[in-house]
Design a protein that fits this description.
By secondary structure, this protein is mainly β. The chain folds into two domains: 86 residues, RimM (Elongation Factor Tu (Ef-tu), domain 3); 62 residues, SH3 type barrels (Roll). It is built from two helices and 13 strands; from the N terminus they run E-E-E-E-E-E-H-E-E-E-E-E-E-E-H. Strand 5 and strand 6 form a beta hairpin. The protein is elongated, with a radius of gyration of 19 Å.
């Protein structure tokens, strides 16, 4: 019988970026505080929570981990894993230090402007390569994305279940006519 870990409790801890060599090694970008500790968290699953990976870190190269997964023994199988994200249950991770938090903790928080007016609710935290981005639903523009920087998000108040947003210049402005045509 397959047991599924509740998806709402999962935290992304890494992603397969490609294959390395011909014996099934993979390259992994780790999102853990100590990258080499990635394989110590259990169970490691995919986003669905159904597929469980037995991961062994074998080294590091060019800022990424080199690892092996049980059952992956050739380059073709390793290449098929490119893009697979690794997740662990939240309770498998250490508690954050004072003043720290997991990005997952931001989802569901109320976003508000400096004056306290409503800006929406954080529905996702993304990273497309240039830094973390907060996706805010229910804002004045429906859905909007803002960079997760100290300048744009100066306050993260987990106890108060809110963040303060200072929108970058032009974010809420309608596109000018020249840009449309």
């Amino acid at each position: 019988m397959t047991t599924k870990v509740d998806k709402g409790e999962l935290v992304c801890v890494g992603v397969v970026t490609g294959a390395r060599g011909i014996k099934g090694d993979i390259r992994v970008k780790s999102f853990t505080a100590v990258p080499e500790d990635l394989a110590t968290y259990r169970p490691i699953t995919d986003k669905s929570g159904f597929r469980v990976f037995k991961l062994k870190v074998t080294g590091a190269a060019k800022g990424q981990l080199v690892a092996r997964i049980d059952g992956v023994s050739d380059r073709t199988a390793a290449e098929q894993l490119k893009g697979v994200e690794f997740y662990v249950p939240r309770e498998a991770l250490p508690d954050p230090e004072e003043g720290e938090f997991y990005l997952r903790d931001l989802i569901g928080l109320r976003a508000e402007r400096q004056d306290g007016s409503d800006f929406g609710t954080i529905s996702a935290v993304e990273n497309f390569g240039a830094g973390d981005v907060l996706e805010i639903s229910g804002s004045v523009k429906g859905g909007i994305m803002v960079p997760f920087t100290k300048e744009v998000v100066p306050v993260v108040d987990l106890e108060g279940q809110r963040v303060v947003i200072i929108p970058p210049d032009g974010l809420l402005e309608p596109p000018d006519e020249e840009a449309k045509g």
